[in-house]
GNAT family N-acetyltransferase (Vagococcus hydrophili), 160 residues
Amino acid sequence: MKKSDILAINQGFIRQEWEARTEILENYLREQEKGKRQVLVAELDNQVAGYLTIVSKSKQGPFKDLYPEIVDFNVFERFQRKSIGQKLIKRAAYEVSFSTDILTIGVGLHSGYGAAQRLYIKNGYVPDGSGIWYENRQLQRGESCLNNDDLVLYFSKKLV
């Protein structure tokens, strides 16, 4: 990711009627410059089509402080179904393979994450077995929750 990608990514969000994320993206760039996060940006026809970020150690969930995690993975709607997500996730695995043999990711459970759920499974990511997490804690049997972005299932992939 470079500074100019921030504007292009924001334009992608605005085109699909989402809010711009300037502050978040600027923070990603700062963290990338400090070696705390890697940001992969995909382009198609000279336009930013999507991105994902990788943190060196997961900050929450069952893999906290153990393995790298893909965090914030977006392919803009008009670029979906063009293998961009597939290429980004494969590149992420390649990038971390020099330092670890495990890559992790959390995915939301509502239907808005359906394409992502399928992508991870098709690429060999498997649920870790800890069940569902809600608001950054393991949800216990019988507990209530909301089916929102905070309801997550964690996956991992062995890279070698």
Summary: The first strand starts at residue 37 and ends at 44. The helical segments are 3-15, 22-33, 84-96, 114-122.
